[in-house]
Amino acid sequence: MGASYPFLTFWYYHLPNFVLAALMYTLLGRALLGLYVDPDSPNYIWRFFCRVTDPVVAAVSVVTPKATAPVVLWLFGVVWLFWLRVALLNLFLYFGAVPRVS
């Protein structure tokens, strides 16, 4: 990659990819933490995880059956975000808007 492909040159790819990755891993953390913490816990870390990932969970719950357990819904969210990142990469690769490793 070197000096010919600095990080800020492709900010329009790296920024959305970073946000999606952060949401994906935070949602995975919420799923793992949810195994040990009560859903109505006053723990500030748990509340942060819930507050950050609730919009993703709400979007995933629209296409997921209502009988699904919350932990499974969170894991579906991780999978959806992963495939969204893959689609974003493929879209940018198709248009030649990301650096290629040679």
Explained architecture:
The structure is a single chain. With 102 residues, the chain is an all-alpha fold. The chain has one domain (21-94). The chain has helices spanning 11-33, 44-62, 70-94. Helix 1 crosses helix 2 (44-62), helix 1 (11-33) packs antiparallel against helix 3 (70-94) and helix 2 (44-62) packs across helix 3. The longest helix has 25 residues, at 70-94. The radius of gyration is 17 Å and the shape is elongated.
Could you estimate the helical fraction of the residues in percent?
Answer: 55-70%
Mean pLDDT equals 90
Low-confidence stretches: none
Oligomeric state of the chains in view: single chain
Helix-strand topology string: HHH
Please tally the helical runs, counting DSSP H or I stretches of 4 or more residues.
3
Q: Let me know the number of strands.
A: 0
What is the molecular shape?
A: elongated
Strand content of the residues, in percent? under 5%
Please give the domain count.
1
Determine the N-to-C terminus distance: 8 Å
Query: Over all CA atoms, what is the radius of gyration?
Result: 17 Å
Helices and strands: which structural class? mainly alpha
Q: Largest beta sheet, briefly?
A: none
Write the layout of secondary structure elements.
Layout: H1 11-33, H2 44-62, H3 70-94
Helix pairs in contact: 1-2, 1-3, 2-3
Quick tags:
mainly alpha
Summarize this, please?
The protein has 102 residues and is an all-alpha fold. It has 3 helices and no strands.
